[in-house]
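Before we proceed, please read the two lines closing this message. Let me know whether the structure tokens fit the sequence:

…
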Amino acid sequence: MINGKKIIVVLPAYNAEKTIERTYREIPREIVDEVILVDDKSSDSTIVKSRELGITTIAHEKNLGYGGNQKTCYKEALKRGADIVVMLHPDYQYPPKLVSAMAAMITYGEFDAVLGSRILAGYALKGGMPIYKYISNRLLTFFQNIFTGNKLSEYHTGYRAYSRGVLTSILFEKNSDDFIFDNQILLQIFNRNFKIGELSAPCNYNTDCSSINLKRSIEYGLGIIFNTAKYLLHKNHLAKFAFLEEKNE
């Protein structure tokens, strides 16, 4: 715990057998109350390795996608009483040791959500991000900053921390089961006027990191444009979209 808040780290996993142990070993257990891994029907031994490490492990009976995996992660963490939920990829692309700093930024009430940014301090290219991903990252981030009125350095990081208040106030269940899920959560946070902080997070594009190909990247980029348009229409009361609706308490 930090400041009396229960912290749970969730690991949305798919074929992470080779990297899960290194990721898990570097999670700061002195402040993390529980680690939950959700396996999205991996074809390797991710589940076996996770259970050997003593991680609370949930196995999907079928592949639900990146967003579908996170839905299970957040539902389970909330059910277990988490005050702060940190989402960390188990492929060791992001440094687990920063969990403490990200959680602390929320536990002391400064922010409602925190993003681990690969762009701050120029870590993206240093960490091996492919140049086409870097360029698209910068262009899409610029686009969304203009049209949402925010000033984030990066919208596309997979290293995130959310307060319980955020996750219980937004309809993340209505989001896509695909990679656009992460971006939709940010739009939901903007819509509810929660405070977002950022922290520099070095990245490591090792050979075992999960990544989407060029075709899927183009689909992801188009999805961002379409969802940003939905956000603008919803925010200006010109149309309604289910994932941006207020949650009935």
About this structure: Strands lie at 7-13, 34-39, 56-59, 84-87, 113-117, 160-163, 196-200. The radius of gyration is 17 Å.
